[in-house]
Amino acid sequence: MTDIHAETLRLARQLIACRSLTPADGGSLGLLAARLSSVGFVCERIDRGPVSNLWARLGSTAPLVCLAGHVDVVPTGPLDEWTSEPFTPTERDGLLYGRGAADMKASVAAMITAAERVARARGSKGGAGSIAILLTSDEEGDAVDGTSAVVSTLQARGETIEACIVGEPTSTERFGDTIKNGRRGSLNGRLRVVGQQCHIAYPERGRNPIHDAAPALDALIATEWDRGNDYFQPTSFQISNIHAGTGASNIIPGTLEVAFNFRFSSESSASALQARVGEVLDRHRLQYELQWTLIGEPFLTPRGPLVDGLAAAVHAVAGVRPTLSTSGGTSDGRFLAKLAREVVEFGPLNESIHKIDEHVRVADLEPLSAIYERTVRAIWSRA
Predict the structure, then answer these.
(1) Tens digit of pLDDT for each residue in 17-28?
(2) What pTM does this model have?
(3) Structural domains of the chain, ranges and CATH numbers in brackets
């Protein structure tokens, strides 16, 4: 067992044992700050209300490479369905079990041990750049007071990041097979169509909002919003909830409520999508109210120093040539893209995330840490 493997496994087990249900950090950030301080990092807590945030930096020269992630986890679900206690790290058949093992305490452990090795070597063979760690306890929750707040603080100081790796679990079939070099934007809409309630036997006395809205909804579903591009799938419009009526079968309802979501490519903007939806609704002469919530704009890091450096590190360590992907949900990468010139996501297998008996392959911990270290050095060497 190598030192990298033993140290990363030990830290991963310590982190899993921290009961860090969103927005609590369960003591994990104090543990990590102490480790980073011991190797020369300047550690700063940028907490917001119940949310804990850690910004740790070593060095003041460019380029600055940031390793970012979260220590908070989703609820466990029914405890009696777990094979072992979710906050008691347990190894079985080459797997490390526990809530947050894959999402994303294994990545955090690998980042910290990589950063420690970089710190110890910096100034000799370690390169001339700087390295930072950004961790939050608010990724699985509202994501308002976590990474987003830290980014705002850093922007106000005029700080910049050249390259950022977010440790989300990106591997799908085999460790190292996927790098997320961007994410689609996410835009929620809540539509309220106003009709006129009346007795269903006298429809001429009212106006049925379901009937009024049906052609407009059909038009929205059939619309081609864009065709995507080399990195992004075409923008997707999906209805998630529809509600109307009182529950009685003899009443035409007075209102219809529809919740929908856009997952949109960089070929579309949130404002353009909002305008196009409004045009469709107005064309169908609906009386309506519409509220929008922008979850995040799309971001993209094309091939360049970070993508190429990370891909080369994955191939060198794991023997895999990773593919690039922008699929999946949102991540804190959407906030970091406002500050960092390049942002990618890379981590272990994601098959078990948010599931009962969440786990990570023990054998993947050492290569994950080595890949993070190699990528930091690759970015520094290009400066």
Answers:
(1) 999 999 999 999
(2) 0.91
(3) 3-183+298-381 (3.40.630.10), 185-296 (3.30.70.360)
The answer to whether residue 72 is catalytic is yes
Catalytic residue among 72, 345, 358, 366: 72
CB atoms within 10 A of CB 327: 14
Q: Give tens-digit pLDDT for 338-383.
A: 999 999 999 999 999 999 999 999 999 999 999 999 999 999 998 7
The predicted structure's pLDDT at residue 126: 47
Check if 81 is active-site. Answer: no
d(CA 324, CA 342): 14
Phi first, then psi: give them for residue 257, nearest 5 degrees.
-115, 135
Q: Catalytic one among 25, 103, 116, 139? A: 139
Rounded distance between C-alpha atoms, residue 50 and residue 69, angstroms: 18
Q: Which two tokens stand for residue 306?
A: 């970070």
Assess contact for 194 and 359: CB atoms under 8 A: no
Q: Can you give the pLDDT at residue 122?
A: 80
d(CA 223, CA 217) in angstroms, rounded, equals: 10
Q: Is 290 helix (H, G, I), strand (E, B) or coil?
A: strand
Average pLDDT over residues 33-56: 98
